[in-house]
């Protein structure tokens, strides 16, 4: 099996380590003096977006911003430019994981960060943000007034050695930018926005302080702060900025630390920490005072223990990658016509790379097919006949042999000698027979496949050629169709797959064709109506709601639940987010309201009875020893 790497300018791309919707990140290395190795992370635009002017401009802005940053808590950018019509950034390679990946891994193994570990990480991030906020332009010396605008666990890298670094200034903007920072523009992750950012107002570095405060709250609570069924619901919560007391969620939090957390999350930015430096100062003082024995070495060991396999595999991989050599510019110009060849001789034990790199210049279809066919013949046929034919031709390359090549390009021309031997004609005929067999077998396989999928009658009825039917049905299976939804009486709230659509009947709701969807209708004074159906095309759905002759209502809230708390009424889980107003129950009959947080394992239960038409308030407090009974 061959292992292919791509020569990308003066860099060698070794392994894809991350990929997003419009960009990808590679582990790479560059040539260094005396054979020394230096590993980098290269982020480049995907080919299909390389002509997108807005996205390229965003990349350039990230480079212009980050190239000025030089701090131990910020991932540095060393180089940027355009290679093969793709814009790229060359960054520090951090051997570790982002904070979101670490949190997910800890939850999987039923672990969590301690208070001192959480404080240390946030303190380090605050130091990096402060540097960015105070950064000046290296050419003019003027303050850049940078705001990250996307401070979240995904953009915090933690190395296996315990280093904490801020990454991805892709949407960070300097104060001088006009279009990107105008009011009404929303960029960043909704769950980590500040209230002013969620309102689309002009922002400043205090927005980063608020976002970092969210990260700190979540690390201490081991739970998410702002969640919702959709983006609009999340934005409403951010704008309202109702922050649960961290000590009610985690009673082990000292009062002074709660004060620091709540100050960073103040809705009024004039009350909030005015600089990341002030936030860092309070965190550092508290950490040193309350946890004087905290050790970065112990923190590093905790991360390594959580990713033992990844640490060992990463080290072995870097050792192997260090043996891969890079062609210099002169070597590239004088390289053989076959293309760039990696000069390393001792990489046969390399593990398979987890992705298939694409060649520098993909060969035409015809030569590629020829090479595959020759490999098949050489492996299974040619060697068996050479002894009989006594051929003097040089041996063909064995494509199954382990080698390290860099996207060898192959000539599209095949030269035929006028003095071709009987062996050459024999091989040509044999290849032709194999090609014909493959085409014949492919035809019958294709016919049999579609014969089992679509009947001839259906094909004739739709007048569609069999070769077009597969795409037709794949598109139909994922097509969006519109459903006219009505109820008697009108005005019922419409829930689709447990999510509030925001519509009331009558309404037009879009669903995915041929996929079962659950509709729930709710209206005060009427029993809930639920139905599940599939729609292959535009259709109608009508619901007749039954009135509740004797109904009462509940206003339900959970004072210290957090976003992951589940609430049940008479054993039925509510899909609405807390608080819930005017939830209908049967009057004069006992109702049991239960709340449970699967993260903290705390719960509460309230039993209540209400009269006809009466509305009662129910407040659940997780951790109470027993439920209250109200009549």
Describe this entry's structure for a reader.
This protein has a six-stranded antiparallel sheet with strand order 2-3-4-5-7-6, with helices on one face. A hairpin with a 2-residue loop joins strand 6 and strand 7. The termini are far apart. It has four domains: 1-93 and 323-348, Phosphorylase Kinase, domain 1; 111-305, Orthogonal Bundle (Transferase(Phosphotransferase), domain 1), CATH 1.10.510; 479-544, Sandwich (Immunoglobulin-like), CATH 2.60.40; 551-630, Immunoglobulin-like, CATH 2.60.40. The model is unreliable at 174-185, 329-421, 446-476 and 626-631 (pLDDT under 50). It is of the alpha+beta class. 33% of the residues lie in helices and 23% in strands. It contains 16 helices and 26 strands.
CA radius of gyration is 32 Å
Tally the beta strands.
Answer: 26
Quote the distance from N terminus to C terminus.
75 Å
Strand order of the biggest β-sheet: 2-3-4-5-7-6
User: Which structural category do the helix and sheet elements fall into?
Assistant: alpha+beta
How many domains? The number is: 4
Contiguous helical run count: 16
CATH architecture of the largest domain: Orthogonal Bundle
Report the portion of residues in β strands: 15-25%
Q: Please give the CATH class of the largest domain.
A: Mainly Alpha
């Amino acid at each position: 099996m061959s292992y292919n790497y791509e020569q990308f300018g003066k860099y060698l791309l070794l392994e894809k380590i991350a990929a997003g919707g419009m960009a990808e990140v590679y582990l790479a290395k560059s040539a260094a003096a005396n054979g020394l190795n230096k590993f980098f992370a290269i982020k480049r635009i995907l080919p299909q977006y390389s002509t997108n002017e807005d996205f390229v401009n965003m990349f350039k802005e990230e480079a212009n911003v980050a190239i000025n940053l030089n701090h131990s808590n910020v991932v540095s950018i060393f180089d940027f430019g355009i290679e093969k019509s793709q814009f790229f950034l060359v960054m520090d390679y951090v051997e570790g994981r982002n904070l979101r990946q670490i949190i997910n891994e800890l939850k999987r193994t039923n672990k969590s960060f301690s208070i001192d570990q959480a404080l240390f990480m946030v303190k380090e991030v605050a130091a990096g943000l402060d540097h960015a906020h105070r950064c000046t332009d290296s050419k003019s010396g003027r303050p850049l007034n940078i705001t990250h605008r996307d401070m979240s666990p995904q953009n915090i890298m933690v190395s296996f050695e315990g280093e904490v670094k801020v990454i991805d200034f892709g949407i960070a903007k300097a104060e001088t930018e006009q279009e990107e920072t105008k009011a009404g523009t929303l960029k960043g992750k909704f769950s980590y926005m500040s209230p002013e950012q969620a309102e689309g107002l002009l922002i400043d570095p205090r927005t980063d302080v608020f976002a970092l405060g969210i990260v700190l709250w979540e690390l201490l609570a081991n739970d998410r702060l702002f969640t919702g069924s959709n983006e609009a619901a999340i934005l409403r919560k951010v704008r309202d900025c109702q922050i649960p007391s961290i000590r009610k969620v985690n009673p082990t939090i000292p009062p002074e630390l709660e004060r620091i957390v709540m100050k960073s999350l103040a809705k009024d930015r004039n009350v909030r920490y005015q600089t990341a430096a002030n936030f860092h100062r309070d965190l550092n003082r508290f950490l040193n005072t309350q946890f004087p024995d905290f050790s970065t070495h112990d923190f590093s060991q905790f991360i390594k223990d959580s990713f033992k396999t990844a640490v060992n595999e990463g080290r072995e991989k870097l050792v192997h990658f260090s043996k891969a050599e890079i062609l210099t510019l002169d070597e590239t110009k004088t390289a053989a016509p076959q293309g760039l060849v990696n000069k390393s001789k001792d990489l046969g034990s390399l593990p398979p790379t987890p992705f298939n790199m694409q060649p520098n210049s993909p060969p035409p279809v015809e030569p590629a097919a020829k090479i595959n066919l020759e490999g098949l013949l050489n492996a299974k046929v040619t060697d068996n006949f050479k002894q009989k034919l006594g051929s003097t031709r040089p041996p063909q390359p064995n494509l199954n042999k382990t080698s390290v090549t860099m996207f060898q390009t192959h000539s599209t021309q095949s030269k035929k000698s006028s003095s071709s031997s009987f062996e050459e004609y024999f091989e040509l005929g044999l290849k032709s027979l194999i090609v014909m067999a493959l085409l014949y077998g492919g035809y019958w396989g294709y016919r049999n496949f579609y014969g089992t999928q679509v009947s001839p009658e259906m094909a004739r009825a739709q007048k569609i050629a069999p070769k077009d039917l597969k795409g037709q049905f794949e598109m139909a299976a994922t097509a969006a169709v519109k459903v006219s939804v009505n109820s008697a009486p009108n005005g019922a709230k419409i829930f689709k797959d447990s999510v509030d659509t925001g519509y009331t009947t009558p309404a037009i709701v879009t669903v995915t064709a041929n996929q079962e969807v659950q509709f729930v209708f709710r209206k005060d004074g009427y029993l809930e109506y639920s139905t599940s159906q599939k729609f292959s095309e535009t259709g109608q759905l009508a619901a007749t709601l039954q009135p509740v002759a004797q109904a009462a209502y509940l206003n339900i809230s959970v004072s210290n639940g957090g976003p992951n708390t589940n609430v049940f009424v008479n054993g039925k889980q509510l899909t609405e987010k807390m608080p819930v107003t005017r939830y209908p129950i049967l009057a004069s009959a006992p109702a049991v309201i239960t709340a449970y947080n699967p993260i903290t394992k705390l719960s509460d239960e309230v039993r209540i009875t209400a009269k006809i038409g009466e509305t009662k308030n129910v407040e659940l407090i997780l951790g109470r020893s027993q439920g209250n009974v109200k009549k």
